[in-house]
Queue: 4 jobs
Job 1
Amino acid sequence: MGLIVQKFGGTSVGSPERIMNAAQRVIEEKERGNDIVVVVSAMGKTTDHLVSLAGEISSKPSKREMDMLLTTGEQVTISLLTMALQAQGFDAISYTGWQAGIQTEHIHGNARITGIDSEKIKNQLQKGKIAVVAGFQGFADGSEITTLGRGGSDTTAVALAAALQADKCDIYTDVTGVFTTDPRLVKTARKLDGISYDEMLELANLGAGVLHPRAVEFAKNYGVPLEVRSSLESESGTLIEEETMMEQNLVVRGIAFEDQVSRVTVCGLPNNLLSLSTIFKTLASHGLNVDIIIQSSTDSNTASLSFSVKTGDVAETVDVLEMHQSELGFEKIESENGLSKVSIVGSGMVSNPGVAAEMFHVLAQEGIEVKMVSTSEIKVSTVIGHDDMVKAVEALHDAFELSKQPAPAV
Ligand code: ASP
Ligand code: MG
C-alpha cells in the first residue's frame, strides 16, 4: 500500500466516456489499497479553444485574464471526474490549484511553483478520500490565479508527488510510453522500458512532447519515479528514473527532431570582446530565444556570427538587430528558413567518443548537409534542411540500431 499520484492528459479525459475510463483507472489503484491523488488537464482541445476564443475578443489579451480564462478548462475536468468517482460509490473531492495549496511566483502565463501547502490533501487522504486536483494552475500573492505554461499539468502532478512524498507518479496519456523517436514518423520506433531523468530532460527540451520539461526537472530533483503510460491500454509504460537503476547506458537512446528552425547570420561584426554580449543582450531584452550559436573570425578585425532561432521569431530578430545596427556595428544580416533540428540523445555518450563522428558519417552517406552543430555530454544536435529531416531521423534510427531490443542487464 502506498500513495500514488495519477495524472490524466487532455485526450485521456477528452469526452464523458474517457472521463469514466479515467475514473476506472483511479478505482483500480484505489482498490489495490493505495491512497490516490489525481491531477487532470482540461478536456481534449479545450485550452486551445479558449486561447482562440480570447483571440476573437482581443489581439493582445492581458496575461492575467488569459490565466483566469484558461484555468476554467481544468476546473471542468476536476468536477466531472469527481462526479464519475462518486457515481461509482467512491469518496472523492475536487480542488482547484489554489485550494490544493499550489503556490507560484507572481508571473502570469508561465509561473514556477514555489511551494505546496499539502495539509488539506493529506487530511482528505487520511479520511480515505480520493483528491482530484486541477493541473496547470496555482496562485500567487495569496489571491492571484496563475498558470504554469502550456503542458504544465505534468508539473503539477510531479510537484504534488514530491510534496506528498508519493511512491510513484503515473502520467496517463494517449501513447503507450516514451519511444525511441516519434512512431508517427518512423515505423520501427520502439517503446522504451526505461529512460533516465537526464535523457528524458534532453528529449523533452528538444521538443519530444510527451512530458513538460519542468516536470522532468522536478522529478529528477526530488527523485520521484515517473511512469508514462496509456490510459486506454493496460500494458506497462516507460519508467523514468535515476541513471543507476537503468538496465544499460545506451550510447543513443532516442532521437528528437524539431521543425520550423531558422538560421540568422550577422556578417562583418567588429571582432571585439563586447560585441557578442551586446547582440545577445539586445535579443534577450526583446524576449527572443536563441538556440545554437556559432562564431567565426573572418579576419583579425571582423567576425561572423550565426545562430538558430524559431522560424516564428526570425522577422522580429532581424528587425531588432537592424534597429540597433549602428551601435552593434555589423555589415549585414542574412537569414535562412526551412531548417530542422535533429538530435541524438543517450547517456552512454559521455564515455563513448566518436558518437558525433558516427552521426556525421551517417548524414554524409545520405547526402545531407549539416549546417550547425551543438553538443552536450549526452546529446548531439544538428541543424539540417527541413526536406532532409525524415530521411535523417530514419537513417540515424537505423544506424544506432534503436529498433533493436537491448539485451537485458546482467
Ligand atoms: N490544459 C493545459 C494545456 O493544454 C495544461 C496541460 O494540459 O498540461 O496546455
Ligand atoms: Mg501534456
Job 2
Amino acid sequence: MCIFALQFTTAIIKTTNIMEILSNRILNMAESETLAMTAKARELKAQGKDVISLSIGEPDFNTPEAVKEAAKRAIDDNFTHYPPVPGYPDLREAVCTKFRRDNGLEFKPEQIVVSTGAKQSIYQLVQCLVNPGDEVIIPTPFWVSYKEIVRVAEGKCVYVKTSIENDFKVTAEQLEAAITPRTKLIMFSSPSNPTGMLYSRDELRAIADVVMRHENLFVMADEIYEHINFVGKHESIAQFADVKERVITVNGVAKGFAMTGWRIGFIAAPTAIAKACNKLQGQVTSATCSIAQKATVQAMLMDPATSQDIINMRETFRQRRDMVYQLLREIPGLKVRLPQGAFYFFPDVSAYYGKSFNDKIIENSTDMAFYLLNEANVATVMGSAFGDDDCIRLSYATSEELLREALRRIKEALANLK
Ligand code: GLU
C-alpha cells in the first residue's frame, strides 16, 4: 500500500512542472556561486581530478586550541539546552567587550544578536529593515549573497560601480548621487570580499556625512574580515557618534578565528533593530548552537593585538598575499591591485576576453572561471557573482605550495588562449 502511494506521489511530481511546485521566491533566487564553485571543485576532486580550489573563502587553519577546549567544557557542563534567542548573556557581554577593546565602541548586551553565521545576521537585518520596493545601495563589487538577500526581501538593489583604478571603493559623491527618497540601506564590507580593500577613517567619515544628510537611511557594515588586515588599525563606520544609531555592524568568528564550521555571526545594532532581529530569529532558528556559543566566548577573550594564534594566521596570510601578488604580476594582461586585507585577489582578466581555446571563445568571467576549472584544474569564482564581469576572485587561504602550483597553471592556461 505504502509503496503504491509512494510511486503515485513520485509520478505526480515527475509529471508536474517543477515551476508550479516551488515558490516564485526560490525560483527567482540565484544559487550562491561561491558555494556552487566549491561544490563543483569537490565533485571533480571526488572523481579523481587534481583540482586546486581557490574558490571558497575559508581559512585553512584549525580553530585555536583554547576555543576547542571551551567547547568540550561546554558539553561536559551540559550546555545542551535551548540558549536564549539572541545568545547567552556571557557571550553578549563578551561581544560588547570585544567591541570596546578592538574598536572603541560601546554597546549594551541588548544591542547584540548572535546568529548562525554572519550570513544569517545579514539576512535577518534585511528582512527587518527592507520593505518591498525599498532601495538598497550596494557598491560593486560586492559579496555574492547581499544581492539575493535583498531580492528575497523584495528590495531593489541599486548598484554603484567602483573601479580597480579607485581600489574598488565607492566615493561619497557616488553614494549621494544614488540616493533617492526610497533608499533604506547601504551595504558594504571592509576589509572587502572580494577585493581585499579597506576604507580609511576619512573615507568612512565622508560616507557617514552622506548618511546623516538623509533621514531613515541605514548602513550595514560587514566587518567579518576585521582581523585579516595588513595595513594597520581597523576602522569602523560606527566610531562616529553622529551616525552610530544608523549603523548595524556585522561581525563573527569564521574568518579571524578559523571557525567557519562553528557558524557564529553577530550584529551590534540600535536596540530597536536588534529587538526586531531577535524576534525574527525566534521564529527561524530559536537560537544558535549552545556549544558554538560557549566556544565563541573564549574567542572573544582573545585580544587580536596579542593573541599568537591570530597574529600567526595574519602573518601567514600576508606572506601568501605577497607571493601571489608577485606571481599574478608575472602574468601578462592582468590588472591586479595589492589587497590590504581579507584573503582574496580580484584581478581584472578582461584582456583575455575574445580569445579562444579549441574554438571556445572566452567571453566573460563565467567562461573564464570554467575554462580555468576544466583546463587548468583550478577553481576560482567568476567576477559576475560579485557584480564585476571583468574580474575573477582567487582565495589565497591555502598553502604556499598549492598557491604556487595554481598560479603556474593559471599562467599556462591563459598563455594557451589565442
Ligand atoms: N564568505 C565566503 C566566501 O565568500 C564563504 C562562502 C560564502 O558563504 O559565500 O567565499
Job 3
Amino acid sequence: MSSDELKAHLEFFGELGVNGIRVEPLWRSRPLHEPSALPAPIAPAEPVEPAEPVEPAEPGAVQARVFASPADALIAIRVDLGECTRCKLHTLGRQQIVFGVGNPKADLMFVGEAPGADEDIQGEPFVGRAGQLLTKIIEAIGLRREDVYIANVIKCRPPGNRNPEPDEVGQCEPFLFRQIDTIKPKVIVALGKFAAQSLLRTTDPITRLRGREFRYRAAVLMPTYHPAYLLRTPSAKREVWEDMKRVRVILEGE
Ligand code: URA
C-alpha cells in the first residue's frame, strides 16, 4: 500500500469515526475481499449483468420533452409529481415529498430506500444521522455533497419507517427513473438491501450484491451497505470504503 493509499484509508476511518485500525493486523494483510464474507465473485473491471432485466417498464412515463438543461428537466419532473396522491402514503402521515437533492449533472448518484423522520420534516434525503454519515462517505472520496445527486426509491416516508410496499414503489419509481435518465450519472450507488433489490429486480441478499457492478440505465450500479447499517455495524465500513474506492476509480475513467 502506498503512503497516499494509507493516508486515504486513515482519513476515511478518521472521518467515519473508526478507531484502532493500527492494532488490527488483519486490516493490513487481508485480501480486499474475503471469500467467506462475499459469496459472489467480484469482477470489478468487467461490469456483470444482473440475472433479471433491469430496464423496467415505466407506466405513466411521459413523452420525451426537450429541456434547456438537466436542472430544467428535473424541475419538470418535480412539477409532474405535484402534490402526489398516487399511493396511500399521502394518507399515512407524510409531511412532504422528498424529491432529491444535488447536482443535476452529477457523475455520481446515491439512491436510498425512502425518507425517514428527519427527511420528512426537512424535505431533503439523507439529512438524519445516516445522512450525516453518507456525507462523510462522499467527502472521503474527495467530493462534496453538492457534487453528487441523492434520491430515494420512494419519495414519501412510510409510517414507522416500514419498508415501502410494492404498490408504493410501482407508483413512485417512474419518477426516480426519470431523474436518473435526466442526470445521466456514470455511477449509481444503491444504498442498502431495499434500494439494490428494488432497482435490480432481484431478491439476492445485499451481501451477495455488494462488491459487484451492474449495468443500469447507462450507468454502472454498485450496491453497498446502507449508512444506517454502518451506524449499527461499524466494522462494515471497510467494505463500503472498498466500494467507494472503486467508485472513485470509475469516476476517474478507470
Ligand atoms: N434512509 C434512506 O434510505 N433514505 C433517506 O433519505 C434517509 C434514510
Job 4
Amino acid sequence: MNLRTGRRRTLLLSAAVASAVVAASIAVIGTAEAATTLGASAAQSGRYFGAAIAAGRLGDSTYTRLLTTEFNSVTPENEMKWDATEPQQGRFTYTNGDRILNQGLSNGSKVRGHALLWHAQQPGWAQSLSGTALRNAAINHVTQVATHYKGKIYAWDVVNEAFADGGSGGRRDSNLQRTGNDWIEAAFRAARAADPAAKLCYNDYNTDGINAKSTGIYNMVRDFKSRGVPIDCVGLQSHLGTGLDSTYQANIQRFADLGVDVQITELDVAQGGNQANVYAGVTRACLAVARCTGITVWGIRDTDSWRGGENPLLFDGSGNKKAAYTSVLNALNAAGPTTPTSPPTSPPTSPPTSPPTTACSATVSLNSWNGGYVATVRVNAGSAAVNGWTVTVTLPGGSAVTGLWSATSSSTSGTVAFRNVAYNGQIPSSGSTEFGFQGTGSGPTGSPTCAAG
Ligand code: G2I
C-alpha cells in the first residue's frame, strides 16, 4: 500500500466511523430522552411528572434548567392561592400566577392550579368575614380565578385540606365550613361553570393510606359522584416521613374505583435511610393504578423545600441528582410504555394439586375508633393461582358496613360475603390483593374465610 492510498483509506474510514457515530448518537438521543428525564419517563405511560415552583426562583439558572429539562407539569407553590390572587376584596392580581402559568405553557408542560379555596393563606379581609358574606365572596373568588385561567389549567385543586386529622373522618372546622357543609360542592359547581375543561380535584394530606381521614374523603367523593356534583380527581399530597403505608396503593385504587383520577400532588419524603425506597414505592403505586395520572414533587432542590433541614426532594441544594431521583427514574422506566396489567396466570394443568376450597385465605387488619372502624382485608392465593374469590366475614351485632372498596358485598350486616371486582379477581400463585370496608359499631373479631372460584 502506498502512502497516498493508505491515507485515503484512513480518511474514508474516518468518515464512515464519523457518520456511524452521528447515526448512533441520533438513535441514542431519540430513545435516551424518553428514559433519562422524569417527565419523559412518566410520559411513556401517558403520565406527567411535575414540580411545585416559585415565581421568585425563576431567575435562578440551575433551578430553571432542572425545571425545563426534568419536569412536564408545574404547580404554583403559593402564587395562585387566595391571598396572592385577591389581596383586597374584588381586586385581583395575577402577575405571579401568570408567570408560573407562562413558564409551564412555554415549556409544553401541564399546569396544575393550586388552590382555589383553603382555610389557610386567606387574605385578611376574608378571614374576618363569615356566613353569607363569606360564602358569596368565596364563590366569587372561585368564579373569577377559574375564569381568568380558563382553558389553560390541566387540573384545579378546587378545595384544599377541608377534612380533619385524627379519627373522626369528618370536616375540619374553619370559617368556610361554618358557612354550611355544602360549601365544597358549591365551590366545585362554580369551578365547573367557569372552566369546563379543567379537571376539578379535592386535595388533602395525611391521606397516605386507608385511614379515617382518607375514608371521610372517599365517602364525600362517592356521595358527589352519586349526586352529580362535578368532581374529576383526588389529590393525595403525600408529605411523607421515613416509611410508606402498606395500604398506599390500595387507597389510590379505591378512589380510582369511584371513577375519579388520582394525582400525587405534593410529594416530598423525609431524608433517611429509606428515602429512595419510599419515593420508588410511591412511583410504583401510582404506575400500578391506571387512573393515577401523575406525580408532583413539592419543590425541586432540597434548599427550595418548605421542609427546611429535612432534605426531602430529588435534587440536592447544588442541583445534583440524589439517590431518590435515580430510584424514581428507574421505577418510571421499569413500567415501560404501557400501564401494567395483572400478571398472566398460567394455563390450567391437570390434575390440580390443591382442592379449590383451600386455594385462598384472608386476614383482616382493623383501624378502630369509638363508634366506627376501617377493615383492610388481604386475600392471599395459595400455591395455585386464584380466579375469583369470596371472603366471608361475620360482623358483631350493631355493626353495619357503610363503605366498601375493591369488592362487592352480599349485605351490610351479620354474615357478609365480599366478592372480588373485575380487576382483582385473578391472584397469581402465592400473590395477594386487598379490599376494604368501613363500618359503624365495632369491626369483625373472628377470622374471615376465603373460597376461590
Ligand atoms: O405546607 C405545605 C403545603 C401543604 N399543602 C398545601 C400547600 O399549599 C402547602 O404549601 C406551603 C408552601 O410550600 C409554603 O411556601 O404552604 C405554605 C403556607 O401555608 C407556604 O409558606 C408560606 C409562608 O408561610 C409565608 O410566610 C411565605 O410568605 O410561603 C409564603 C411565600 O414564600
